[in-house]
Design a protein that fits this description.
This protein has 420 residues and is of the alpha/beta class. It has 20 helices and eight strands. The chain folds into three domains: 203 residues, Hypothetical protein af1432 (Orthogonal Bundle); 43 residues, no CATH class; 154 residues, Rossmann fold. Keywords: Nucleotide-binding.
Length: 420
């Protein structure tokens, strides 16, 4: 680990390793790196060849940028960009398929960005990296194709702002510059022009090079004498601004004047079996109604791990959640919630009742998850953990009003939002 630590630290200085060197240090943590050479790419979009060739070209293009136009990117941000360039297509071995498009067989890798970020969520936690760097790498990998799409679709401020809550826009720009220059394609000039337009919009929207886009807005609406009212206003203001429901953050003051005075809290757990969700609830949410899918399964089926009557279990849980929210009781939804569509359903339900929604995400490495699971009262099989790791759809801060990331022993790694 000391050797790996020194190597990672060298990325923050001036070391510029090629793909082969990166793989030699990191393939044990990210086994998909070994499959890059056997993962094909479309001959028109990526005439340079397989994913390994492309990734090496992206790294070289990034180093050229870092020594010319982006010399100001140094230290931890340099390290983040290099690792993001190495890992930006990490899920292509999982997602690459051939598909007929307009009568022509093409090679595609649908959703490789978000699947890649989810793949990295537990594995990056094995490395001696600052958690801020872990979050930045996941954001760059998970959203690296969005900048050009925003320009192509002529999206407005809210979409750029929402992206800035999940990824650093300047680092995204430099990563995608390298991504485009690290390939052989017929429309390279067009792709680069799209990125330049993205940069112009980001600068015009004052989202370029900004450390905390949330704080930039919230400082304009700090006017509530009641902390609980301010927490609600802050959470809903950022969400409404990022979804285009308001055009300025100040409009949130009137829009949320009455709702902020009497509301309930909805906490949504998100983590695999053995991550510590129930223990965290016991220590931090005393007095909350707890809706546990495990307990409802035990109530209906006699066993927590019995998967019969899934529809009935979920319906009963939703009924109890609605009742708690309707009565303005604070409530926590205790389940793995590793699928985005499941989380969205509960969050939408909470918003319909005017609740302030906090997502609590548990991010541990795989070995810790397995050890914790074996040592708990209600352990599941190792194959269940493996299945959950495969199915994980990593949550992003924009999915809820407030967002917490929890690590080993309930320690907090990150928080977004105002907590009274």
């Amino acid at each position: 680990m000391k050797r790996l630590n020194r190597w990672l630290e060298s990325l923050a200085l001036d070391h510029s390793p090629d793909f082969a060197e990166c793989r030699s240090f990191l393939a044990s943590h990210f086994p998909l790196l070994n499959e890059f050479e056997n993962t094909e790419q479309d001959k028109e979009w990526h005439a340079e060849g397989n994913v390994a060739i492309h990734t090496d070209m992206v790294l070289q293009a990034l180093y050229a940028l870092l020594s010319s136009r982006a010399t100001h990117i140094q230290g931890a941000e340099r390290q983040v960009l290099i690792l993001s360039a190495l890992l930006h297509d990490i899920a292509k071995p999982l997602t690459t398929r051939r598909r007929d498009i307009a009568g022509v067989e093409r090679v595609i890798a649908s959703r490789h960005e978000e699947i890649g970020a989810s793949y990295l969520a537990t594995r990056l936690m094995e490395l001696p990296l600052a958690y801020k760097s872990v979050m930045q790498i996941m954001g760059l990998v998970g959203f690296h194709q969005v900048p050009k799409l925003l320009v192509v679709k002529n999206q407005g401020y809210s979409d750029y702002f929402r992206l800035s809550l999940n990824a650093n826009l300047e680092l995204l720009y430099w990563l995608e510059q390298a991504d485009m220059k690290g390939r052989t394609c017929s429309d390279l000039d067009k792709q680069i022009d799209l990125l330049e337009q993205f940069r112009l919009f980001a600068e015009d929207y004052q989202l370029w090079g900004i450390e905390d886009p949330i704080e930039f807005h919230l400082r304009k609406i700090q006017l509530k004498s009641c902390q609980s009212e301010q927490a609600f206003l802050d959470g809903y203001a950022i969400q409404q601004l990022s979804h285009g429901d308001i055009s300025t953050v100040e409009q949130a003051i009137a829009k949320n004047y009455e709702p902020c005075q009497h509301y309930s809290h909805l906490y949504l757990m998100c983590g695999m079996s053995g991550s510590g969700k129930s223990t965290w609830i016991e220590k931090n949410l005393e007095g909350y109604d707890v809706i546990s899918l495990d307990e409802i399964r035990k109530e209906l089926n006699g066993k927590r791990d019995c998967q019969k009557n899934r529809g009935q279990v979920l319906q009963l849980a939703k009924t109890r959640l609605k009742k708690a929210l309707a009565n303005k009781r604070n409530v926590v939804w205790d389940a793995t919630n590793i699928r985005k569509d499941f989380r969205n359903t509960i969050c939408e339900l909470g918003e319909n009742y005017g609740a302030l929604i906090t997502m609590v995400v548990f991010q541990l490495n795989e070995s810790s998850l397995r050890v914790n699971n074996r040592n708990r009262q209600y352990a599941v099989g190792d194959e269940v953990i493996s299945s959950q790791l495969t199915k994980l759809e990593w949550p992003w801060p924009t999915e809820s009003h407030r967002f917490l990331v929890i690590w080993e022993n309930g320690s907090e790694l990150y928080r977004k939002g105002t907590f009274s």
